[in-house]
Write a structure and sequence with these properties.
The chain has 286 residues and is mainly α. The protein has eleven helices and no strands. It has helices at 8-33, 37-57, 61-83, 87-108, 116-121, 129-158, 160-165, 170-192, 197-209, 215-240, 244-285. The longest helix has 42 residues, at 244-285.
């Protein structure tokens, strides 16, 4: 059944998928608590504009997409900070423009581009060694950022005023965080496509929040949930001969639903336990 593990392009997909699960788990909880779930959607659409620009000028789309996405992410942060509005509002203003720009650039590009569907929904076969090396570099950058700045990011996320008083360079950390999100989204877009990229970051984090309370446990569980969904999605997409992107997102959503059911059962059990303890105490007092 698992003979496909011997295929090189599948091995490469699993490697990149594992990396995506790890970086998504490291960044996702911060995105979740900062209420920036819409960020993934906006940057993914901006990435499409960068890809389209690369196709138009006849160069490799991925480097152009990285530059475009990071620029868009920092610009969204700049608008949010200077305009005193939330990131979601800034994204809502810009992401439709970015997608429209991408479609326009594709339409004026010479020739017929059959690989556009791969960029929209992801394609394992489109992943190259270059993509894998780039994903490893992103993993190293995100891991170093988490090891060095995660404590400060927690202060910023839960109490920004306290972070400022404590001497945390809030502005610098904020823009670095926006740039990292953008970089991670570009890698994810290359794997599952523009339309589905945001779910890779936010869904595992949301699912883990339903199961655990501690932030560190949430990070670890987000990575585990991401790994399960990505490995399952790649396996099923291979045997069912379907695109890997929708298959992966299906399993991520399934993991979230299971976590939601678990949370409901746990809350019902805790409520019953509290009631039983209260009732037993009342009976002893009588």
């Amino acid at each position: 059944m698992f003979d496909f593990f011997g295929l090189f392009f599948i091995q490469r997909a699993f490697i990149i998928g594992s990396i995506i699960a790890v970086v998504g788990g490291l960044i996702g909880p911060f995105v979740f608590y900062r209420k920036m779930a819409f960020m993934g959607v906006g940057i993914a659409h901006g990435t499409f504009a960068g890809i389209a620009l690369g196709i138009l000028i006849g160069v490799s789309p991925l480097p152009v997409a990285i530059i475009f996405a990071i620029g868009l992410g920092i610009f969204i942060g700049f608008i949010s900070k200077t305009g005193k509005i939330s990131e979601d509002v800034s994204i809502g203003i810009l992401f439709s423009f970015a997608m429209g720009l991408g479609i326009f650039l594709i339409s004026i590009s010479p020739g017929y581009h059959t690989d556009i569907m791969g960029y929209l929904f992801g394609d394992i076969l489109a992943i190259s060694n270059y993509d894998m090396y780039l994903a490893i570099i992103v993993l190293i950058l995100v891991f170093l950022w988490y090891m060095i700045r995660s404590r400060q990011m927690k202060y910023m996320t839960f109490d920004e005023d306290f972070a400022k008083i404590s001497g945390v360079p809030v502005g610098i950390d904020y823009y670095i965080f926006m740039a990292l999100i953008s970089l991670v989204i570009v890698i994810i877009v290359n794997f599952v496509g523009v339309i589905l990229a945001s779910s890779i970051i936010i869904a595992p984090a949301a699912a883990s929040k339903l199961v655990v309370k501690r932030f560190s446990a949430m990070v670890i569980l987000s990575m585990i949930f991401g790994e399960i969904a990505i490995f399952s999605g790649i396996t099923f997409s291979y045997y069912l001969n379907i695109s890997s992107g929708p298959s992966i997102v299906f399993f991520i959503t399934f993991v979230f639903i299971l976590s939601l059911i678990f949370n409901k059962i746990k809350r019902a059990f805790n409520k019953k336990r509290a009631y039983d303890l209260k009732n037993n105490t009342w009976q002893r007092n009588v």
